[in-house]
Amino acid sequence: MAMLLENSRPWNKLMLATAIFLCFEVCDNVFVVNTWPFVDATEAAYSVLSDHGSAVDSVVAGCTQCEVDQCDGTVGWGGISPDEDGHITLDALVMEGSRQDMGAVIQLKSVREASQVALAVLHHSFHSVLVGENATNFALGLGFADQTLSSERSTEVWRKWKENDCQPNYWKNMINSTLQCGPYSPATNNNNSVDSTVVDKPDELTKRNSNRKDHDTIGMIALDEFGDMAVGTSTNGMSHKIPGRASDSALPGCGAYVDSAVGGAVATGNGDIMMRFSPAFLTVELMRAGLSVQEAAHRAVQRIAEKYPGTFGAVVAASKDGEFGAACSGMDTFTYSYRRDSSAKAELVEISCAKHPGKTFTLEFGNSTGIVIFSDYSFYLALFLLSTCFLVMMSFLLYCRRSKESKPKELGIKLIWNNAEAHD
């Protein structure tokens, strides 16, 4: 490098030095960040970026690594999430940030490389999402291997569930669905409407699959040296789901969303609830509106928790400038992994979660913004203390004002009295 600069003409030296400086500046900004402490997936994605690869190829490499590793048994084939019939199916999504071009597969069967098939949908079709048997046929037609997705582990999980009378399951308003295996009959009254005596409680869905061992997703965000961003997700869905169920992971705006001009976001958790709020899309749009990455992620999670308190879920977000943020609910802590050029290896960040998020205030001080979060009880205590402080402050200001107004009058009385004594 030194010889190259020494043998160059002055103007060429300047241009070459500038190019080298810009390269180092751009390369230092590349990063990958993903849900959960799946550091091998983080490293696999980052290796693509360090080799001057694209953000799209990076997230596919990272998610594929998790599929191979069968991360937590909730990503890839042979995991802990067979459906009611004992079958493993895979969902995955890939989206690039310049035009939101994407590819996704839902209920993929017989093909283990779900993220690569999603990439094939992006590259080789005008469609965005392919589903079920036809998604499988699409993959097989492109040369992907036909392989079983079941394993001894997944078969054993399904067998124990059957022995436990198929509990828990995802049926509601069905006769005996909480007592035995199906098939079930709808619980209706004489008017052919839902019988209110057997309707599940409103918070039942929140309670089901309330920890990461029941279901999970890897969601990944990457920025390459060209300034392009991408997101990717992969999962084998919820344990004992009803066959045909689609996860939030493969739905754009729900499991992931990205815009290279702003940033990207990925979500993980109870997908049947989270998909109703499009948290990834909301997070990116809040960032576009000027909110910080952290605040945008928090507001997206908070919106879900306000309707479904205690919902198990999290959002991880990253801006185009390399700022990270995350928010979560329904668990004590949440961990995400990241790698950038300034770090020698993948690093973990653990954040604290509020199991039952309460009221939220956004406080602005000049150019700084902060979030104050209160639980349901501490909110009212804080409100009482703030009100008390306000009343004390107002009383003090009123006292000072009255004291200031009374002093001249007292001085005037004393002057008049002294003058009267002088005249006497």
- What structural class do helix, strand and pairing data support? alpha+beta
Q: Let me know the average pLDDT.
A: 84
CA distance, first residue to last residue: 103 Å
Radius of gyration: 29 Å
Number of helices: 12
Helix content: 25-40%
Order the strands across the largest sheet as they lie in space: 4-3-2-6-5-1-11-12
What is the overall shape?
A: globular
| Main sheet record | 8 strands, mixed
Secondary-structure element order, N to C: HHEHHEEHEHHHEEEEHHHEEEEEEH
Low-confidence stretches: 1-5, 16-27, 356-379, 410-417
**What portion of residues belong to β-strands?**
15-25%
Structure summary, number of beta strands = 14
Commentary on this structure:
- With 424 residues, this protein is an alpha+beta fold.
- 39% of the residues lie in helices and 20% in strands.
- It is built from 12 helices and 14 strands.
- An 8-stranded mixed β-sheet has the order 4-3-2-6-5-1-11-12. Strands 7-8-9-10 form a 4-stranded antiparallel β-sheet, with helices on one face.
- Helix 4 (55-69) runs antiparallel to helix 5 (114-124).
- The relative contact order is 0.12.
